[in-house]
Amino acid sequence: MNPTLFAGLACIASAPGLKEPPPKPPSVEGEWSVESSLMGGKPDGLLEKNPIDKIVITTEKWVVVRGGIDSIGANLVLDPKQNPPHLDLNMPGGMGPGTKAIYKLDGDSLVVCYVTGGERPTKIESPPDSNVRMMTLKRLKK
Question: In this predicted structure, what is the pLDDT of residue 6?
Fold first, then answer.
């Protein structure tokens, strides 16, 4: 056998196989129902006062749907590399203060903690007597 051919075949035989691409990290994109809303560690009545049909999250928007009508939506910026991950909501055109939130995604459950117009919380919790709202969302199946 030709030595060059033999060396070429040996290289091909020992070449690593193609690897599967790494799995896509979990995404907050989708449609979500609001399971609960706490403020200061207690139910805040938000869902009873102003029911939410669903929240639609895309790569760039957070849209609340009430009574079948989409809100104008907030511009969404995610930073999943932070610990806990950061989620910022900013109204289009700079209307009002933005919301600096943190979140925890666990399968089809998304927990978001924030203080409207306030500082970003540091823990996924709504401590008693705090102004931290903690919303628990459940992914809607299509």
Answer: 44
Q: Which amino acid is at 114?
A: Y
Digit-coded pLDDT (tens) for 34-64 = 999 999 999 988 788 889 999 999 989 999 9
Contacting residues for 44 by C-beta, under 8 A, at least 6 apart: 37, 38, 133
Q: How confident is the model at residue 101, as a pLDDT?
A: 96
Express each pLDDT in 92-108 by its tens digit. Answer: 776 667 899 999 999 99
Q: What is the 3-state secondary structure (H, E, C) of the chain?
A: CCHHHHHHHHHHHHCCCCCCCCCCCCCCCEEEEEEEEEECCEECCHHHHCCCCEEEECCCEEEEEECCEECCCEEEEEECCCCCCEEEEECHHHCCCCEEEEEEEECCEEEEEECCCCCCCCCCCCCCCCCCEEEEEEECCC
Q: What is the largest CA-CA distance in the chain?
A: 84
Query: 113 near 124, Cβ under 8 Å?
Result: yes
Q: What structural domains and CATH numbers belong to the chain?
A: 29-139 (2.40.128)
For residue 54, give every residue at least 6 positions away whose Cβ sits within 8 Å of its Cβ, in sequence order, or none: 31, 32, 33, 34, 65, 140
